[in-house]
């Protein structure tokens, strides 16, 4: 039995972590970190966990928490985890960071897109990007101390495009990605633009040309393609609680067939429990992945334009955040990867 602490336990991703970990047979939740709700019973905030989670929130520091737990999940805003991390903490515990602090290897790129300094650049090289279906062996490697849990748009985009990029089936210079997200992706803090009356019966684009997940998508797909990648990425906010649907488009290399595309997906994901490859022409739907750690991937070759349409759907709070974090934890500690996550 391992002991876990969650910092940011009262946010949407943090609450999803609590729900998953409270049912995990090999985990005991020790601390529920929240400065805003310090001393408040957790189940009074999330009534669905009454009788399941009987702990109070605490404003305990990361250093104090690290002294007694095996793993800390940081479901916090950008900058927090890196500002707290030091050698003493990492000698005592493992960190799974759900923010962007360790996702980008270049601190200058991080500053450019997030507008703040990367507070712990000395740990960037050792942090492992926690996209399990791609980096499983790196995550499992003995001695790993920091996992950079991928973002929600990035998880869906990278997994959807990766096989075709890695197999050289598409011209990556033509890649365009659109992403639609439910409102929970914007976080739990009160913002006028996220109020019900502001988002209901409306769809809007945002972060045009500046969305912070763009460099993360580019960096990871660059590893797949074996060269730098530049992506046009546009996110949209849609009036639903949770879920992400991405549509990616790229020109196919000459003589690439639908069977070639299908074979690429099967090669990379044929044995993956949390990836479902749909028949050509069938579109994923967010309702079919809601509350699961699954990603559904579909594709369609368009012979008229010689382009491929790639589609992916995930639950942004599970596969896009908490579920993937638990998947990473399972790999780190040698548990079956699906523990606590299978439906």
From TrEMBL:
Superkingdom classification of source: Bacteria
Coiled-coil segments on the chain, per record: none
Keyword vocabulary terms for this entry: Amino-acid biosynthesis, Arginine biosynthesis, Cytoplasm, NADP, Oxidoreductase
Domain Semialdehyde dehydrogenase NAD-binding: 3-142
Principal cellular location given in the protein's record: cytoplasm
Catalysed transformations (reactions): N-acetyl-L-glutamate 5-semialdehyde + phosphate + NADP(+) = N-acetyl-L-glutamyl 5-phosphate + NADPH + H(+)
GO terms for cellular component: cytoplasm
Keyword Transmembrane helix: no
Transmembrane intervals: none
GO biological process: L-arginine biosynthetic process
Annotated PROSITE patterns: ARGC
GO molecular function: N-acetyl-gamma-glutamyl-phosphate reductase activity; NAD binding; NADP+ binding
Catalytic-site annotation from UniProt: 152
Pathway: Amino-acid biosynthesis; L-arginine biosynthesis; N(2)-acetyl-L-ornithine from L-glutamate: step 3/4
Annotated localization: Cytoplasm
EC number in record: 1.2.1.38
EC class (word): oxidoreductase
Similarity field: Belongs to the NAGSA dehydrogenase family. Type 1 subfamily.
UniProt cross-references to NCBIfam families, sorted A to Z: argC
Record's function text: Catalyzes the NADPH-dependent reduction of N-acetyl-5-glutamyl phosphate to yield N-acetyl-L-glutamate 5-semialdehyde.
Designated name of the protein: N-acetyl-gamma-glutamyl-phosphate reductase
């Amino acid at each position: 039995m391992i002991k876990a602490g969650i910092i940011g336990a009262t946010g949407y991703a943090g609450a999803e972590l609590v729900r998953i970990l409270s049912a995990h047979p090999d985990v005991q939740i020790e601390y529920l970190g929240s400065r805003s709700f310090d001393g408040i019973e957790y189940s009074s905030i999330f009534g669905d966990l009454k009788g399941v989670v009987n702990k109070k929130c605490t404003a305990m520091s990361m250093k104090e928490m690290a002294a007694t737990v095996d793993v800390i999940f940081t479901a916090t805003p950008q900058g927090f985890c890196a500002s707290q991390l030091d050698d003493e903490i990492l000698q005592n515990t493992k960190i799974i960071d759900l923010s962007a602090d360790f996702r980008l290897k270049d601190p200058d790129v991080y500053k450019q897109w997030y507008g703040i300094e990367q507070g712990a650049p000395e740990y960037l090289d050792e942090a492992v990007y926690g996209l399990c279906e791609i980096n499983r062996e790196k995550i499992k490697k003995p001695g790993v101390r920091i996992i950079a849990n991928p973002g929600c748009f990035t998880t869906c985009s990278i997994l959807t495009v990766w096989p075709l990029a890695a197999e050289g089936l598409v011209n990556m210079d033509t890649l365009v990605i659109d992403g639609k997200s439910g409102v929970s992706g914007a976080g739990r803090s009160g913002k006028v633009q996220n109020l019900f009356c502001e988002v209901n019966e409306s769809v809007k684009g945002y972060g045009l040309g500046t969305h912070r997940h763009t460099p993360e998508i580019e960096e990871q797909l660059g590893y797949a393609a074996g060269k730098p990648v530049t992506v046009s990425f546009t996110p949209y906010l849609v009036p639903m609680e949770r879920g992400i649907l991405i549509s990616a488009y790229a020109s196919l290399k000459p003589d690439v067939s639908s069977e070639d595309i299908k074979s690429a997906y099967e090669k990379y994901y044929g044995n993956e429990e949390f990836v479902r490859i749909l028949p050509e022409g069938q579109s994923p739907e967010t309702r079919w992945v809601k509350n699961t750690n699954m990603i559904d991937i579909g594709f369609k070759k368009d012979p008229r334009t010689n382009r491929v349409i790639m589609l992916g759907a995930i639950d942004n709070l599970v596969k896009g955040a908490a579920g993937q974090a638990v998947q990473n934890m399972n790999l780190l500690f040698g548990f079956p990867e699906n523990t606590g996550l299978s439906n």
